[in-house]
Amino acid sequence: MELRVLKYFLTIAREGSITGAANSLHLTQPTLTRQIQELEKELGQKLLVRGKYKVTLTPEGMILRKRAQEIVDMVEKTEAEFQAITDTISGEVYIGGGESDCMKYIAEIIKEIQADYPDIKFHISSGNAEDVTEKLDKGLLDFGVLIQPVDLSKYDNLPLPDKDVWGVIMRKDSTLAKKNYIELEDLKGLPLINSRQAMRKTSSKNEFIEWFKGEFENLNTVATINLVYNAAVMVKAGIGYAITLDKLVDTSEESELCFRPLKPRLESGLDIVWKKYQVFSPAAKLFLDKLQEKFGKEEV
Fold it and tell me: Residue 20 — pLDDT band, cuts 50, 70, 90?
């Protein structure tokens, strides 16, 4: 497979038509069609279903779209790293992470680095632990910020200062909003919106699950989420109560939502992680040096 043809295929997937993709790529339609037909022949699979006005991806085409995007991203990342090997430190640093107020520590380091090295660019991707670790393992990210509970055995890591507090996001007109904190008994029978990551059983201790004292499976989980924005939308719509971390949803005086912490208090720490034995670009190594300087862990 040629990288050029993979980019052609991704353009077709994005545009939804051969004609639109050909115009975007400044190619003739027959030329583009021939390239895709040769790709299908090379893979031995049909990738597109050609309709009258648009094309759709076959299941095999959807697999290729995911893999092709990863390949293109990796090539572009590699090219950027080699372009950065100069006397002046420059380049790209790729960081993925979940939604957390503790990302402010990462933001502080980025600000410091960019003040001294304005040619370094940072790319931040939001996602849950599964999304982030998958991209880390494939080399698409340099670092990941993971919210506990999570298995760290495959990675080098540094714990970030502070911890996030668990609680319940609800409408202000809810009866529970009159309380200062939420206990397990308050949640029984309520429609709940839960984090898929927090619910997942791991090889390490899961303090989130343990907080429910064996009652978690008996609760009424009506929806699960990986990031909290959509949970807030569902809470506003009256679908349920979201068990999530503090400071991720607007609960200001103007908002129709409020946050109440769990009792007993439940907190989750965060770690910034990277692949063991990873070879860093100069820009990524500078970022790691700043992390170790800030958070006091020996060099790896």
Answer: confident
Q: Which two tokens stand for residue 256?
A: 């129709």
DSSP string for residues in 15-53: HSSHHHHHHHHT--HHHHHHHHHHHHHHHTS--EEE-SS
Rg of the chain in Å (alpha carbons): 23
Q: What is the pLDDT of residues 107-128, one digit of tens each?
A: 999 999 999 999 899 999 988 8
Contact 102, 160 (CB under 8 A): yes
Torsion sign over Cα 111, 232, 191, 173:
positive
CB 106, CB 145: distance < 8 Å: yes
Which helix (DSSP H) or strand (DSSP E) does residue 275 occupy?
Answer: strand 270-275
Judged by DSSP in three states, 158 sits in strand
Q: Do residues 227 and 147 touch, judged by C-beta distance below 8 A?
A: no
Paired strand residues for 168: 243, 260
List, in order of start, the domains of the chain with CATH numbers. 3-79 (1.10.10.10), 86-162+270-295 (3.40.190.10), 164-268 (3.40.190.10)
Distances 237 to 33, 119, 170, 201, 290 between C-alpha atoms, Å: 46, 44, 10, 30, 43
Give the Cα separation of 160 and 289 in Å (integer).
Answer: 15
